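Tutorial, part two.
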Amino acid sequence: MTIDCPYDEVIHQWSSINVLSNEFIGMHYKECNREELFKLYTENSEGLVIFTLGANQIMYGRKGEMPKFFTPYHVDVVSTLGAGDTFKAGCVYALLKGMSDLETIQFASALAGVAISRFPLPLNPPSLEEVQALIKNS
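Running the prediction step on this input gives:
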């Protein structure tokens, strides 16, 4: 898995998942249309491509597919510190557990959702039960 990696890099081409943050896209591809950029990413990898946009819809998919969208879970936000890293950690966990693309997005989104509902995150990390409850109850 990799994060914020250009579409023409070897690491992207061989990654199982590439998570691209809104910040990275805005800095490196500010002139590009998101749908066209997404197509460049998916055409250059067999892996799952994920564009995150904070609280806005997540765009994800694979080569040869139309992009799919997922709206992150609504939670009471206490601090967004660590949200992106937590989402990415959720993708690693999902990859290791063999989750489907949708399950990966759901799990990573729920993990980040639980994480931003508390502060400080390092002293109170999300539990698997909390993540599963957010998915189930949303």
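Helices lie at 10-14, 22-28, 34-43, 83-97, 101-115, 128-137. In part three we will examine how such features are distributed along the chain.
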